[in-house]
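## Example pair
The file below holds two records. Each record gives the amino-acid sequence first, followed by its structure token line.
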Amino acid sequence: MLPAQRRDEITKHISEVGAVNTETLAKRFGVSVMTARRDLKILEQEKRLRLTWGGAVPLTFLSHEIPYSSKMDHMPKAKEAIAEYAAALVPDRTCILLDAGTTTFALAKKLASRTLTVVTTDLHIAIQLLQSPSVTVHLTGGQLDNDTRSCNDMSVAAFLESINVTMAFIGTNVWDLSRGAGTSNHTRMHIKRKMMERAEKTVLLADSSKYGAFGPWTVAQLSEFSTVITDRGLGESARKSVLGSGINLRLAE
């Protein structure tokens, strides 16, 4: 196999498995570890993958949390549309869970005039809804995470064990059909799963720019959500694949 062909195959293999180490890659393609490292370096220079300590991951792999300030400025119109659609699903005089995130924050603002009980891990959401005379707010407590501005330790999961809610609205930085909704943080994965367990219905809020990416921890497959709400920027091919798999996908205007 020519070096260029081998590198094409390496790129394809990494996109399928998600992450590889150099030694495993060398054995798979019958080359030395030094050659495998050289191939990965070339592929990184060509912007076809991202190097990690001892291996590589696809460019679509999100290994760390995006700072809150960066997320606030990303896809504002899409988040507004998703929040508008999601707010229409919420019955008055119910108890709901709002996951941490900027899309769920947009939803919280839409719900401020409603009569609801809201449980959240998100400090910004709690402060926003605290200004509403008709919303009862419960902040889960726990150690605050600077990147997400939310409670993020296992005491949150313990708190969630004591509640039952009508709906849980879950945010995500990455989602696709094959790997589901994911996160870069192990504790956050457990918290999101616990939120889903405590709700009668679960709704994933995910803008289209996040589709096709994935993280090290899978929260849930798309089929585990009652509804998935995204914006109309989702590509036709992805849309058909998700709908064809029986996912209850909704496109916000």
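Second record, same layout:
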Amino acid sequence: MLRSFLVTAAVVIVAQPLFAQDKLDLKKIEEAQTKAINFLKTTQAEDGSWTSPTQPGVSGLVVYSLLTSGVPVDDPTVAKGLKHLESFIQKDGGIYDPNTSHKNYETSIIVTALTEANKDGRYAETIAKAVDFLKGIQWDGPEGAAEVDPAFGGQGYGRSKRPDLSNTAFFLEALTAAGVSKNDPAFKNALVFVSRCQNLKGSNDTVFGDKINDGGFYYTPAGGGASMAGPATPEGGLRSYGSMTYAGLKSMVYAGLTKDDPRVKAASEWIAKFYTLEENPGMGQQGLYYYLLTAARTFKALGTDEFVDAKGGKHPWRAEISNKLIGLQKPNGSWINPADRWMEGNPEIVTAYALSTLKACEGGKK
């Protein structure tokens, strides 16, 4: 298990698109995508859903992955999936199952899918209303969270749950996909919450801020705080781990922070020290595919094609991550995680994650 560390190594992030692009095997990526698309087409239910007719977040992940992998909007599988997602549009603008406690999660994911399907403007109004809905349930004054509250600016599964970094990252992914300005108060308030999820003295003003001070991120400072990487340290610190550190760094970039910001530097140094594709640092195999997707999106958001770790090792991440995934693909085109936590024992969810990751790895391919 990952313990607390003080990162002293530096990270160098450089843009060398030709170097990383030369390392990619785009033919193998395309072959893996085709196999995965065919798998997902065979597992769609008659009603257009995947996994469950009452879990539109899962279907949203799949539809998004198919669209970004080049499956057209009018493809029968995608068209049926979009129709299913449309059935969850609510009067308040959210897109969720009415009996769910995952309103932010479901709406955020579906917004990203509808944005990909919106080339002709068919979903413009729906997306705008959904974005307003998401802003409305962000934790602030109406949710009883003043700015001094550790919950301020975050997103949870819905109003009944405490906010957390994972849900906040999905929220910011949706706002970014929808073209919301980084100057929007929703981004600025979310950045307050995200900063409070980082183990960094000086920028995290919660009781956890200076306990570990390694630059990594944990799940939430709200509701007494929590890290999925294990119990609090004897000093009361919340342990950093891989998927949340990438999610936190990506969220900061989406919110407008640059690589010169101390928070970005500290997170990058943590990643440099614990860079690996063999596990989700601090969590072992748990959440591995979510981790790989979040890592790829983070490096892409940073605008880098080569990452240098704390020992000076150079990593053309697009090639490394895509090759890792291709090696894990099952003969039927799916992926699955034997460590079944956070639904990664579900091949439809994990295959959607993997497809989206491969797309992020394509680089300059059109």
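Notes on the second record: The CA atoms of residues 201 and 210 lie 5 Å apart. Residues 26-43 form the longest helix (18 residues).
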